[in-house]
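Hey L., structure's done. Input below.
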Amino acid sequence: MRSTAIQLAQVRRLLFLSPGTAKNHIAAIQRKTGARNRVAIAAWAWATGRAEP
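Output:
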């Protein structure tokens, strides 16, 4: 998986999600990873090998 810097609005449009659904998914990822924000989610993904910077 290769990561790119895109906005949440772009992600939800690509995946055909409502704004609320996208925010709920981000919140679930934060809870599961212990991340405080989307930057921390990205750092976690890089550190665990799930994404490349």
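The mean pLDDT is 88. Residues 32 and 41 are 10 Å apart (CA to CA).

-- N.
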